[in-house]
Amino acid sequence: MQLQFCGGARTVTGSQHLLSVNGHQVLLECGLYQGRRSEANEKNQHFAYDPAALDAVLLSHAHIDHSGNLPSLVARGYRGPIYATSATVGLCQLMLRDSAYLQERDIEWVNKIRRRRGEPLAEPLYSIEDAEEALRCFVGVQYDRSVQVAPGVQATFLDAGHILGSAGIVLEIESGERKLRLGFSGDIGRPDMPVLRDPQPLPDVDALIMESTYGNRLHSPANDVAEALVLAICETAAGGGRIIIPAFAVGRTQALVYELHKLFDQGRIPDIPIFVDSPLATNATEVFRLHPECFDRETYQRELLDYLAFNRPDQLKRIFLVHGEPDQALALKDTLLSQGYPQVDYPAPGEIFSL
To answer: Do 275 and 170 share a structural domain?
Structure first.
C-alpha cells in the first residue's frame, strides 16, 4: 500500500495523489498545473504514472487546479470512472469545457507568433472534444454514501464547504488482513460563510492528506467581510462612483451576490444595480439552483485545526500536508506537532510513502 504525491506537492496547484493498493491504482484529483507556459505545458503533458493503468479517479471539487487536467488524462488512455458529487459533476460540465476553450484560444495566439517566426505550430494541451470525452467518464455520488472504487477500497464523500459540491473523502482500505482509513481533505471551506454548509470534519482516520494553503494564518470572522463591504459600497455610492469587484466565477461570485442582496434587504447599503459580467459565473449560478442540498444557513466556528476535531493524536498516525507553499504548510506542521500529532510530512513532488 503506497501513496505517491505526483502534483500539488510543495505548491498550491496541479493536485494529483496516487494510491496503489491490492495491485490497483486510485488517483485523487487530476488538477491543472498553472504557471509559466513552458513549465506548465511540461508538467501537464507528462504524468508520473500510466493513465491507462488507473482503476479510478476521485475528485474533491471542480476548481481547475484540482480537475483541469482530466481531459489530458483521458486523452492519454484513461477510460475508468471519475467519481465526484453530483454538484461537482454539474460544475465540471461548465468548467472543463471553458478550460478547453481557453486552451484552444491561447494556442491560437501563440501560433500567430510562431507563424510569423516560421516556427512549427503548437497544439493545445487538450481540445473541447477531449473535455467532452472526459465528461462521459464522470459518475455522480451522494454525500455520506459509501461506494466501492476499487477492490478493497470504499470511498465516502463528506461536505467540505469550499465550493458547491466540494468534498473531503474517506477511503476505507482492506489489504489482506490489514485495514486502514485514509482521509483526504480536498480544499476546506470557511465556516459561517453564506450559501454553503460549513465543512464537515472527517471521522477517525489512520492517515490524512490535508490541504495546507492557509496553514500559516487564520481567517478573519465572516462578519468582518460584510462590514468591509458595507463601508466600501456606501462610501463609493455616496460619491457617485462605480464599484468593480473581481471575483472567481464559481463560489465567490454567488456568495457576493447573495451577501449584497442580504445587505439590500437589511437596508445597510443603497439599492443599486448589480451586473455579473461573466457567462461562466452566470451558468454556474444555474448549477447552484439545481443543488439546494448543498445549502445551509447554520453557523459554526471551525478553522483548519478544528477540522481535526474528531481525530485524536493517538489515533491519527500520519498527516500529509499538500496544496500549500512551504511557509504555509510548515507553519501548520509545527502547530500540529506541538499538539501531539506524531508524524506530519510535507511530501516533495513524486515522493512515495508506504502506509
So the answer is: no
